[in-house]
């Protein structure tokens, strides 16, 4: 699970409170979390913005919409746009390409590292874009 960091800033009374400053009530800047793991052969394409979707066989979401995550390169992060659950059989050919795979069999093999993937298996579809 990604680690979220909390910034502590001293206020005028030298009291430490998470996310607060002396000048404003709440700091709303996005928090960067731990990395999202991508295979080495996909990292450059993710960082270039050529891959914009990932399918994950998770018990529960490991990312959140609006969260920013490192992609294995120090200079690049992704921001999650949407998380949905889809049956493997319902994944479109366009999404197979957006995930950086040539065909459905390659996508099944990559997703199956976490367990068997059948046509009825529910996967998390993570849509994202590159930031930074």
List key phrases describing it.
single chain, 132 residues, alpha+beta, Sulfate adenylyltransferase, five-stranded mixed beta sheet, two-stranded antiparallel sheet, globular
Strand order of the largest sheet: 3-5-6-7-4
CATH hierarchy: architecture: Roll
| Strand fraction | 25-35%
Oligomer description = single chain
Fraction in helix: 10-25%
Count of individual beta strands: 7
> How is the CATH topology named?
Sulfate adenylyltransferase
How would a textbook summarize the main sheet? 5 strands, mixed
Instruction: Please report the distance between the alpha carbons of the first and last residues.
Output: 22 Å
Radius of gyration, CA atoms, in whole angstroms: 18 Å
Count of separate DSSP helical elements: 3
Q: Structural class, please?
A: alpha+beta
Mean pLDDT: 79
Number of domains: 1
- The CATH homology group name: Sulfate adenylyltransferase
